[in-house]
Amino acid sequence: MSSYSILAPNAVPAGFVDGKVASEKVLAALDLGDNYRIGHTKVFFKAGILGQLEEMREEKLSSIFANFQARIRGYLIRKNYTKLCDQRSGTAVTRDHSLTMTHIGPTSSAHRATCLHWVFFKKLNNN
Length: 127
Known about the structure:
The protein has 127 residues and is mostly helical. Helices cover 65% and strands 5% of the residues. Strand 1 and strand 2 form a beta hairpin.
């Protein structure tokens, strides 16, 4: 019954609980009516009830995994977006600095030649 406790997570209290008591609480929370009997060591279901439990469990697990995946995707997208924003701001600062150094700063040909070999500066001048 531990695999079906996911269907009624609040039915079983935290800590050690007898298996029979836990099974009774989970099944009572699922409101299956009189479609089951609990023995000393086993739970007996009427025909089709176990299949219904399996379907309910599959749906619950699917929703849990979908929620988990959505949260992970959101985290990765936010992380990538932050990285892109940082790169964009770094590019703007570098561009502004290089333009300041070449247009306002020293005008010697040696300084200009130093700036021209920078890859990003070449890209700026080609546009």
